[in-house]
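Subgroup meeting minutes
Present: P.N., E.W., G.H.
Scribe: E.W.

1. P.N. recapped why we're keeping a running log of single-chain structure predictions: easier to compare across weeks, and new members can see raw inputs and outputs side by side.
2. G.H. added today's entry (165 aa).
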Amino acid sequence: MICIFDYNQNHPQMKILEKNSNESVNSIGKGSVLDGSINAPGDIRIDGVVKGALIAGGRLVLGKSGKIEGDVQCGSAVISGELKANITSKDLLILKETAQLYGDIKTEKISIEPGAMFSGRCEMGPSPGGLKQQAANIFMSNDKTKTTTTDQKKESNKKDNEKKI
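Output recorded in log:
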């Protein structure tokens, strides 16, 4: 059982969250190296190295010894290790004091502790597309022979329509 204290000026309250037994928490331990993409429907903790795209439907926790080299999509994230990639967090992204992030951020909310290192661009606010669509775009972009970007498709359709006129 997890207790979360939610303070609202009008209604202070305590929320109790039950852990759903159907959800698994995945983990890549310290010293482990995974070369490939991960698609985890729930939470995931990385204390080792991941070289490839990572999609987590829940929370991503990147420990102090953890390192990710590949684009990341997640519900929320707590980064204490090194991330060399772009990250899209649907809700909250927290960069702890030991975090090193080299890449662009897209998130609804962000918290950066003093000492955290961030080099890249940051885009904040609600995401117009859903997490599933963004996740699909990451895996599709890894396969260059099968995909074109949305902008390329729009431009192609525009040119086709101009030819018809």
